[in-house]
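QA checklist item 7 of 12: single-chain prediction sanity check.
[x] sequence parsed
[x] length recorded as 261
[x] structure emitted
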Amino acid sequence: MTMRIVVCVKYVPDATGDRYFADDLTTDREAVDGLLSELDEYAVEQALQIAEAADDAEITVLTVGPEDAKDALRKALSMGADKALHVEDDALHGTDVLGTSLVLAKAVEHTGYDLVLCGMASTDGGMGVLPAILAERLGVPQMTLLSELAVQDGVVTGRRDGDSASEELRAVLPAVVSVTDQSGEARYPSFKGIMAAKKKPLESLDLSDVGIEEDQVGLENAWTTVLEATKRPARTAGTIVNDEGEGGKQLAAYLADGRFV
């Protein structure tokens, strides 16, 4: 029986570019180039490794976002995923993590699943709670922030590393799992993979396709909101200390009252 793996990925603004808020204090996704979130690449990689070790497995990459979010899906397809699912609807603008988790849950149920894989957080929001909320909505076990995992005989096992100890975790499928950036480097798409990705299925759905009403998502219905934002101040010139034996004292004075003397 085919193991159905769904990887939730996100299209995010490039962190190396200048990022801004739009007039409605949502992330301005048009003023900067976007890409597949780097932390989600680790989840794609783990899905590929699990599929390679399984007798029969199929990987679906899933995203919620605007038209350009298809670029994130194509990157995951070029890495080796089998097919993609994109939920796109104008009413989704400004949806927070609670609304996004609802859309993802409905889409995951739509495509069918045994294992859902996520990255540890998105590089634009950074909340890191979506996998847990998604598992709750699906009514399945969650194993989050794993640095190592494996699937065998319908059971997923993994290791979560903490500051002072590591935990060995186990859950029966279906389950939701998130992995950290310590789980293994993600592979680079090959030229063959990039060309093959163009022929792989990419299905687009809107809210009605997954049974969600517009008043369940969007900025006006979000449980969290940004009230105020200011631009990052311009970088100022630093202070040069000519250390002639008094550098330590000058540093101590700076730490004590915030200025050099």
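[x] summary fact logged: Residues 38-53 form the longest helix (16 residues).
[ ] second reviewer sign-off
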